[in-house]
Specification:
By secondary structure, this protein is of the alpha+beta class. Helix content is 24%, strand content 42%.
């Protein structure tokens, strides 16, 4: 169950043009043009996220992995739809949704429901037995970091700030539209580090994986509200191809997070029945 959970939740949490001093290019039909620069918008978005108390996130992820060796091919697919309520300080999260997976012909649908609070720890519903389990306390921080990274736009913005010179910068009447085309060795390092963080493992940044990795048609999109500087949406389209010792692996991911209810999420508390009924995971 835990292996399936990690596989389902691990996304690859992630041009060229406008400099930081340029204002946003209006898209067709834009009437209300703003004059802030990319650097100013990014700083205001970061400041807003750092002061955000709570948010709701609707996340979807579709991923297809093709493994080719000699004449054989194996395909793994997953599709998830998760709704998350998130509090920042203290960190707390409630997640509910479904994950569909096909692992080489073995198909299954897994309901997903989780509570996480700093006071009580991490609780997850076992979709196979419909029973609640509590993760051991020593693993709480690791799981909180992994799950939180899926929907925390503050961390996303901080991590992507190093590439700010590579963003295209546009605007419509209501939003600033930031687009990053993924290419080059610096993105390989970044994405591998994100994969390692997501899986709770260290990954070799200079070995065969890095040397034999390439991107195709990969893009990071961020939508920031003009009036509040809230990050309204983050979308990642990613295609990674590696070829190591004759084994070719292609991973295609489409991850979308839409944020709402800024500072409007109710206090997250784990129900008493969950606390009482849960068994400790081994």
């Amino acid at each position: 169950m835990k292996k399936r959970y990690f596989l389902a939740m691990s996304t690859l949490s992630i041009a060229v043009v406008a400099g930081c001093g340029d204002t946003a290019e209006p898209v067709e039909g834009t009437k209300d043009e703003a004059s802030l620069t990319l650097q100013q918008v990014y700083e205001k978005a970061m400041e807003r996220q750092q002061n955000l108390k709570s948010v709701h996130a609707e996340t979807t992820m579709d991923q297809v992995t093709n493994l080719k060796m000699d004449s054989e091919t194996m395909q793994l697919t997953s599709s998830s739809n998760l709704a998350m309520d998130i509090e920042q300080n203290p960190m707390a999260m409630y997640t509910k949704g479904t994950i569909d997976m096909d692992m080489g012909g073995e198909k299954f649908e897994m309901p997903m429901e989780m509570y996480m609070t700093e006071e009580d720890g991490f609780y997850m519903l076992n979709g196979e037995t419909n029973e609640w389990i509590k993760l051991p306390d020593e693993q709480y921080e690791q799981i909180m970091a992994q799950a939180g990274a899926q929907a925390n736009s503050t961390e996303q913005l901080e991590q992507l700030q190093q590439f700010i010179d590579e963003f295209t910068f546009e605007q419509d009447d209501e939003n600033y539209l930031l687009t990053l085309n993924i290419q080059g060795d610096e993105f390989k390092q970044f994405i591998l580090s994100q994969m390692g963080a997501s899986l709770g493992e260290s990954m070799d940044m200079s070995g065969d994986i890095l040397e034999n990795m390439k991107f195709e048609d990969s893009q990071y999109n961020i939508v920031v509200a003009k009036d509040t500087f809230d990050t309204k949406e983050i979308d990642l389209d990613l295609k990674i191809i590696t070829n190591i010792e004759g084994q070719e692996t292609t991973i295609e991911s489409d991850v979308n997070v839409i944020y709402s209810k800024f500072d409007e999420v109710d206090t997250i508390k784990i129900p008493d029945e969950v606390l009482k009924e849960a068994t400790i995971a081994e």
